[in-house]
């Protein structure tokens, strides 16, 4: 037998002219953004929309956190960056597990509303591209895709021209007296970092003597954490796409699964992986 639930006397029940839960979160706007485009409306389009909208919210938080972590690294304060990067790893876990929900969408269901996307594709996600740039996978060719949106072009151009989190970490190591090669410190930061024997040697020293270089060692492992999570996310993305559409072309015009497969093995921080073989 259920018991009646009484509202405690201290609970605010007169909310007129008060800040409420809905107002604080702007739920009036947030919950009005799930516009169905299929006609007739298909039940499963709501799942597809919310999956991708929540992904964009998590990406917004990743950018917010990584931008703060960059500032700490630039000011030689690694300790507070550790907590932030740990949080990023857990945010990435949320992004990863969201694919489990979308994987319940069957091919028969998706084909009934896929046409409504037109040329829309996750490839066009501005925030995803910002995260990639912040982590160092820079590619100026990605920017003209957004030439219809000057605000997006400005944001991506700004991120392209700023040091990635790995660039800033290597600069910090140089400031701490580690022998980071000059050509790495002065390289063109609008391109991806490529493995350098001198940098590899620095990390071999750090990993051989972790107690002596504890903060540098811990930072390296935090970066490995977020790259590993990124790889898991990319792999799960590819498998869900394969499960739902097989080897059809993507709505944005890409080859679909083969296009996604190419990116799974990309290394943002190559020496942090290579050093394990040399220890």
Short key terms for the protein model shown above:
279 residues; mainly alpha
Structure write-up:
With 279 residues, the protein is mostly helical. The protein has 13 helices and no strands. Helix 3 packs antiparallel against helix 4, helix 3 runs parallel beside helix 8 and helix 6 packs parallel to helix 7. The mean pLDDT is 95.
The coarse overall form would be globular
End-to-end C-alpha gap: 64 Å
* Quaternary structure annotation: single chain
Please report which band the strand proportion falls in: under 5%, 5-15%, 15-25%, 25-35%, 35-45% or over 45%.
Answer: under 5%
Question: Segments where pLDDT lies below 50 for 5+ residues?
Answer: none
Structural class label:
mainly alpha
With helices defined by DSSP (H or I, 4 residues minimum), what is the helix count?
Answer: 13
Q: Profile the largest sheet.
A: none
- Total strands: the figure is 0
Mean of pLDDT: 95
What pattern of helices and strands is seen along the backbone? HHHHHHHHHHHHH
Gyration radius from CA atoms, angstroms: 22 Å
* Helicity range: 55-70%
Draw up the topology in text.
Elements: H1 21-25, H2 27-30, H3 45-74, H4 78-102, H5 107-110, H6 126-135, H7 150-160, H8 165-175, H9 182-185, H10 197-208, H11 214-245, H12 257-263, H13 270-278
In short:
Helix content is 59%, strand content 0%. By secondary structure, the chain is an all-alpha fold. The longest helix has 32 residues, at 214-245.
């Amino acid at each position: 037998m259920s018991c009646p639930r009484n509202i405690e006397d201290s609970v605010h029940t007169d909310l007129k002219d008060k800040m409420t839960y809905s107002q604080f979160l702007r739920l009036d706007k947030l919950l009005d953004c799930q516009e169905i485009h299929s006609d007739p409306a298909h039940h499963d389009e709501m799942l597809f929309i919310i999956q991708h909208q929540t992904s964009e919210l998590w990406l917004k938080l990743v950018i917010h956190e990584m931008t703060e972590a960059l500032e700490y690294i630039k000011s030689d304060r690694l300790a507070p960056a550790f907590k932030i990067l740990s949080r990023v790893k857990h945010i990435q876990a949320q992004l990863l597990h969201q694919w489990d929900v979308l994987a319940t969408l069957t091919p028969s269901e998706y084909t009934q509303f896929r046409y409504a996307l037109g040329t829309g594709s996750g490839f066009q996600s501005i925030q995803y591209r910002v995260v990639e740039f912040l982590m160092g996978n820079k590619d100026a060719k990605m920017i003209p895709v957004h030439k219809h949106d000057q605000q997006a072009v400005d944001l991506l151009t700004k991120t392209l021209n700023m040091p990635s989190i790995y660039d800033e970490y290597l600069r910090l190591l140089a400031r701490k007296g580690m022998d980071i090669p000059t050509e790495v410190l002065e390289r063109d930061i609008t391109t991806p970092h490529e493995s350098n024997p001198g940098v590899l040697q620095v990390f071999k020293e750090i990993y051989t003597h972790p107690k002596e270089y504890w903060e540098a060692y811990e930072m390296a492992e935090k970066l490995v954490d977020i790259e590993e999570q990124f790889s898991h996310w990319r792999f799960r993305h590819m498998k869900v796409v394969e499960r739902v559409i097989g080897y059809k072309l993507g709505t944005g015009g890409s080859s679909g699964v083969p296009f996604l497969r190419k990116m799974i093995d990309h290394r943002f921080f190559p020496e942090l992986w290579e050093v394990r073989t040399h220890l």
